[in-house]
Amino acid sequence: MSNEKVNYNNLDGSGAVTPPQSSSVEESGVDPVYEKKLIRRVDLHLIPILAAIYSVSMIDRTNISNAAIAGMMADLKLNVGDRYSIALLMFFIPYFLFELPSNIVLRRVGSAVWLGSIALAWGSVTIGMGFIYDWRILVVCRVLLGLFEAGFFPGSIYLISSWYVRYEVQKRLAGFYLLSIFIGGFTSLLSYGLMQMDGIQGLAGWRWILIIANKLLQRRKPFLTESDIEIIKSRIDRDREDSQADPLTWRVLGRHLSDWKLWVHALLFMSAAVPSYALAYFLPIILKGMGFSTGMSQILSSLPYISAVVVAFSLAWWADMTRVRAPFIVIGCLLIITGLSITAYSNSNAARYFGLFLGAAGAQNNVPTLLAYQSNNIRTNSKRSVASALQVGFGAIGGVFASTVYRQKDSPKYRNGLWATMGCQFMTLLLVAFMTVYFKKKYRQQKEGTLDEPLEGHPEFTYTL
């Protein structure tokens, strides 16, 4: 395995992705005002395009819940046994298995070629799902969808974390993720509109929900000069000194995977993925179980996501400003536990719906926060590539878990599923407490000069709590 040099000018979707071998600009020669404008230019070129395409990916994988209550459940006989849950979880098997291989391929062939190709592939599969008449073919399509979508999210996280310094990254990760969530939040409203197309061209309304137009990454002209690239590289070197490309060989891969901290971060992200996928797949179904009509369930499903975006981005901004991560993960967990408890046990539909707002806010907060938590506590380009793929891959396991614990026989309150989701948040609280103690211990040893080896291979590196 080898890697290419990064062309920073092309990270908006038209070039390779690992940092270049080159000298950095002297800190004293950088105009702070120009540097700030430069980062804003990067923001506008990088974040929106990644968010827009990822929103299509999320819509493609989660609109099955909207299609389910719009008639697909009956037409494909998904209400027999656990067929619906099987169709959900089969997506995550290839999604988990191909995260890391995809990031390795992305480093070799470049972001435009790889991300554009897999976007075209998953779009074709999703359109085809609108024309199936057998639930088993649906399962096959979900497997293919998982295969093709596996690479986009970890590839995007890798790109974003490579562009910014540590205490800028959570706002950017939140912007990327929450913008895609905001766009995806209107999926239910779109689905309600598409349901009105029932009968057009002889197709049921739920089929039109699945037949969605998909767009690809488009090549853009370079937006940075050579001096701009040098400024970006110097910022990264001043922050963590890893703008230099390091080869990803099998030995390096094994060394990275032997770092137990990466597996803890992966478990944390798995727990964060459970409420996110649970709400995506079962929110319209839970609302319909409250007695709302199909159309009203579609409409009401969007509102918790809109408020969640505001809450989560505000917390991300605060987290970057205070330069801490763990307290904000705790806030997210408490919101999820409180909200889902209300939804599980309240007898008032208004209160149960309010609980979903709290749960959605906590879930959407913890995804970018945990991504930033890992990104801030690792170094080197190759490790970032491996770590992001492993972390997001475990998110797929969270999706499998969410797909299976919300059982049809527990409808309409799904208390077992809600408790399983809350249990993951209690595990997160324990793991974050453990990591905080560990990081503080290492920081104390670093100050005392008693460390056996430098943190992350650099004498001045410190962990972010």
From TrEMBL:
Transmembrane segments: 44-64, 84-100, 112-131, 137-161, 173-194, 262-287, 299-319, 326-345, 385-406, 418-439
Protein localization: Membrane
Superkingdom of origin organism: Eukaryota
Disordered: annotated span: 1-28
Keyword terms: Membrane, Transmembrane, Transmembrane helix, Transport
UniProt GO MF annotations: transmembrane transporter activity
Composition skew (Polar residues), residue ranges: 1-12
Entry-linked InterPro entries: MFS, MFS_dom, MFS_trans_sf
Main location: membrane
A cellular component term, taken from the record's GO annotations: membrane
Membrane topology: Multi-pass membrane protein
Span of domain Major facilitator superfamily (MFS) profile: 46-440
Protein name: MFS general substrate transporter
